[in-house]
């Protein structure tokens, strides 16, 4: 398909909105971002093939047939996105059930190291004297 | 012998379906999984033998010839990776069965574990055998989806937290990969790797560079190359020990394999060589500095995993045959050793009740077997002669010196520094967990034989790599020379006449 402005702008907007949603902390918003990104990519793939009549032998002259390969790839990509959406939803729900929110938390170990760095302390792991370590 | 080629993908998938149907019969599940993975290992060995004697084996799936149909291709590199990966997955499966018995099925709900594990194996083998970019993407998705389930298995709060990061980052890398595939198809009208070899050469330079950059970005996230690596140490350590072990051994290496495949086959001539070398250097040094600072064995090992990916990039980035063959040898070594170390960390957790270094001590006296199982692969990782880590690093250093450029010398220096710091990091674990007097009395737990035996088998395999280093380097060298002359790959796919 020859790229026209409408398609290009729509893909651009889907990507931009998707990226900004993925940068959020809440898993539900990340999920929305992933769906937008996935749709953007699918449209992009569609632009890669020739447009034309339905790609079924006998329905028309072969020269005018649409390229079926991008459509097949999009179909596969949609199925994968659907599965991932279900999994991310389950993950967000589980996170909400366990901790009351669905926000992606900082790593526990990273938080610990940051706290130690603020107080300018060592981790105490290498001390041979065990009474000193809490 | 081409009927063997699809088997490493088909058998685990069938096994997954069977084990899913046997959800209530754990004993039958175990039998099926073990049989399937043993058969996969045997088939992979046969593939390696035939691809060495008769050249690459190619199957057009569904009977449609290339470039219309999808091809699976088992050349030496793919076959070698298949052998190592199936050996590792088999050992880890036995280990996880041992751990399941010891933990009383609490940590790993067996009904989901076996099917998911087999699906993961199928994804890995599919990615290795793929002769088509979209099939490579599907292989990646299969293994990633299985890995999401394995990483969050049990659904505890920690695993959900670590899993969220992992899932989101992996999804993003998949989106980038898929975008790259869409652009490549739009530019060339094909995704068959053999056909891309010619069609990509006809594209303008700037466009090729963009496509190459996008693929490198996508694979770089999966392979945990430095600026894209911070998801790995946050997510891997929370999973059960066997899961972490198989992830550490295989998943990042599939990314590295994809980098090797695309850089040599699709984008030869080393235009991204500088990028690979610089990121390789940063990955090595910054990764290992992270490892030195850790106070938990599993996190420390995750950082050494990132760090040693740098060595592989070093070998690929040199774009010489010696560099590439050393990188292939190093991949084989690193898959085995890193998995073994994570299994040993699992044993330490079993014996000492924790992997936090400030809670461990005196394990050398309490469990001499465990001490040997940890020390041998640890020294191997650090590259102490005569272990295979030393041989691999020596090959890379030789390749770097032969290259002679400023950047190559910096990488040689960085590689040696990383090796020394790795030794420091593992020696620190050894001193704290094995030698000092224990901070509190250790519980007296007997290590289950089914956990010790596979770890021992992998330790033996790691040591065996030293004795097999000569033949293995020869195979790596042949694989590298086939990769360097791309015509071999194209002829294998299209037959003698070359492309139509």
TrEMBL record, chain A:
Organism: Paractinoplanes brasiliensis
Record has Coiled coil as a keyword: no
Residue intervals passing through the bilayer: 6-23, 30-49, 69-93
Entry GO CC: plasma membrane
Source superkingdom: Bacteria
Keywords: Cell membrane, Membrane, Transmembrane, Transmembrane helix
Main location: membrane
Protein name: Multisubunit sodium/proton antiporter MrpC subunit
Similarity-based family: Belongs to the CPA3 antiporters (TC 2.A.63) subunit C family.
Compartment(s) where it occurs, according to its Swiss-Prot or TrEMBL record: Cell membrane
Membrane topology, as annotated: Multi-pass membrane protein
InterPro entries: CPA3_antiporter_subunitC, NUOK/Mnh_C1-like
UniProtKB/TrEMBL annotation, chain B:
Primary localization class, coarse: membrane
A Pfam family recorded for this sequence: Proton_antipo_M
Membrane topology recorded in Swiss-Prot or TrEMBL: Multi-pass membrane protein
UniProt entry tagged with the keyword Zinc-finger: no
Coiled coil segments of this chain: none
Family named by the database record: Belongs to the CPA3 antiporters (TC 2.A.63) subunit D family.
GO cellular component: plasma membrane
GO molecular-function term, one example from the UniProt record: NADH dehydrogenase (ubiquinone) activity
Residues in NADH:quinone oxidoreductase/Mrp antiporter transmembrane domain copies: 130-417
Protein name, UniProt field: Multisubunit sodium/proton antiporter MrpD subunit
Compartments it resides in: Cell membrane; Membrane
Gene Ontology BP terms: ATP synthesis coupled electron transport
Repressor in keyword set: no
InterPro entries referenced in this protein's UniProt entry, alphabetically: CPA3_Na-H_Antiporter_D (IPR050586), NADH_UbQ_OxRdtase (IPR003918), ND/Mrp_TM (IPR001750)
Keywords: Cell membrane, Membrane, Transmembrane, Transmembrane helix
Species of the source: Paractinoplanes brasiliensis
Spans traversing the lipid bilayer: 6-23, 32-50, 70-98, 110-130, 136-154, 166-187, 207-229, 241-260, 272-293, 300-321, 327-348, 369-387, 407-426, 447-469
């Amino acid at each position: 398909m020859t790229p026209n402005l409408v398609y290009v702008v729509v893909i651009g907007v889907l990507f931009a909105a998707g990226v900004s949603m993925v940068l959020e902390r809440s898993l539900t918003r990340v999920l929305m971002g992933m769906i937008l990104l996935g749709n953007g990519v699918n449209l992009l793939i569609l632009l890669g093939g020739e447009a034309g009549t339905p790609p079924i032998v006998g329905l028309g002259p072969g020269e005018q047939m649409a390229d079926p390969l991008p459509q097949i790839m999009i179909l596969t990509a949609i199925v994968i996105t659907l599965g991932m959406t279900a999994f991310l939803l389950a993950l967000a729900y589980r996170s909400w059930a366990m901790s009351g929110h669905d926000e992606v938390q900082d790593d526990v170990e990273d938080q610990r190291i940051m706290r130690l760095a603020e107080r300018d302390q060592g981790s105490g792991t290498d001390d041979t004297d065990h009474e000193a370590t809490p | 012998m081409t009927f063997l080629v699809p088997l490493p993908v088909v058998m685990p998938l069938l096994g997954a379906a069977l084990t899913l149907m046997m959800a209530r019969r754990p004993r039958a599940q175990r039998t099926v999984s073990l049989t399937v993975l043993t058969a996969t290992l045997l088939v992979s060995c046969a593939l390696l033998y035939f691809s060495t004697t008769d050249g690459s084996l190619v199957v057009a799936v569904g009977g449609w010839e290339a470039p219309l149909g999808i091809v699976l291709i088992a050349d030496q590199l793919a076959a070698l990776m298949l052998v190592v990966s199936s050996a590792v997955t088999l050992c880890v499966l036995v280990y996880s069965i041992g751990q399941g018995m010891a933990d009383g099925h609490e940590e790993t709900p067996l009904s989901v574990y076996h099917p998911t594990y087999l699906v993961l194996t199928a994804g890995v083998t599919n990615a290795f055998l793929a002769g088509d970019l979209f099939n490579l993407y599907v292989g990646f998705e299969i293994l990633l989806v299985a890995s999401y389930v394995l990483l969050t298995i049990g659904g505890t709060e920690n695993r959900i937290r670590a899993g969220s990061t992992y899932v989101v980052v992996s999804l993003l890398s998949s989106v980038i990969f898929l975008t790259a595939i869409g652009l490549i198809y739009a530019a060339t009208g094909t995704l068959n790797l053999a056909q891309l070899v010619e069609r990509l050469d006809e594209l303008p330079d700037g466009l090729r560079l963009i496509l190459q950059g996008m693929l490198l970005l996508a694979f770089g996230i999966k392979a945990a190359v430095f600026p894209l690596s911070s998801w790995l140490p946050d997510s891997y350590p929370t999973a059960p020990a066997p899961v972490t072990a198989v992830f550490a051994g295989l998943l990042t290496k599939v990314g590295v394999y994809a980098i090797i495949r695309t850089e040599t086959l699709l984008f030869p001539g080393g235009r991204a060589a500088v990028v690979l070398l610089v990121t390789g250097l940063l990955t090595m040094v910054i990764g290992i500095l992270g490892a030195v600072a850790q106070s938990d064995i599993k996190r420390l090992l995750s950082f050494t995993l990132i760090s040693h990916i740098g060595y592989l990039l070093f070998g690929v980035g040199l774009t010489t045959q010696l560099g590439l063959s050393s990188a292939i040898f190093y991949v084989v070594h690193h898959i085995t050793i890193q998995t073994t170390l994570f299994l040993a960390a699992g044993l330490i957790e079993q014996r000492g009740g924790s992997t936090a270094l400030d809670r461990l001590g005196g394990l050398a006296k309490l469990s001499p077997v465990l001490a040997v199982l940890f020390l041998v692969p640890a020294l191997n990782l650090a590259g102490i002669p005569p272990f295979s880590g030393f041989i691999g690093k020596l090959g890379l250093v030789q390749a770097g010196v032969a290259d002679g450029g400023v950047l190559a010398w910096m990488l040689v220096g960085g590689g040696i520094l990383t090796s020394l710091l790795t030794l420091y990091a593992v020696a620190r674990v050894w001193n704290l967990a094995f030698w000092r007097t224990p901070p509190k009395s250790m519980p007296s737990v007997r290590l289950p034989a089914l956990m010790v035996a596979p770890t021992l088998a992998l330790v033996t395999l790691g040591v065996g790599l030293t004795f097999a280093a000569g033949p293995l380097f020869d195979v790596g060298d042949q694989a590298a020379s086939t990769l360097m002359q791309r015509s071999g790959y194209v002829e294998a796919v299209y037959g003698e006449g070359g492309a139509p």
